[in-house]
Amino acid sequence: MNLNLVAYSIFLAIVIYIIVVVGRICYRNGNLFVLELLPGHEDLCLRINKILLMGYYLVNIGYAAMTLVSWEKITGLPQLVEVIAIKTAGIICIISALHYLNIYLLTNHVQKLIR
User: Which ranges does the record mark as transmembrane (predicted)?
Assistant: First the structure.
């Protein structure tokens, strides 16, 4: 039995679930930040927020799928759990770094461009 296919399936299910949940939370709460940058343009802010959400999904799900290429051959269940945990933790760290980078860029650089 090829444990890599099982690991890929479990990993992608976990990571896509995390990405979708975090994306929805950021989308729901992020509109307030965008509205603060562009007051009086609610429709434009909603569209910008949707574009940010779509970019977030594409970058993170695409990166998670691309990481499957670099996995070593999994030979046992303990290694399967270990690899899934390490790879999932890596994706979560990348998501959090992108989130903070996005907030930094929106609050510091975009405000300077608008004013």
Answer: 6-27, 48-71, 83-106
CA distance linking residue 30 with residue 33, whole number of Å = 5
Residue ranges of domains in the chain: 3-114
Q: Are 18 and 95 in contact (CB under 8 A)?
A: yes
* Angstrom distances, CA of residue 59 to CA of 8, 55, 63, 113: 18, 6, 6, 25
SS3 74: coil
Percent of the chain surpassing pLDDT 90: 36
Query: Which pair of tokens denotes residue 96?
Result: 């959090």
Burial of residue 37 (number of CB atoms within 10 Å: 0-12, 13-18, 19+):
middle
pLDDT tens figures, 86-96: 999 998 998 88
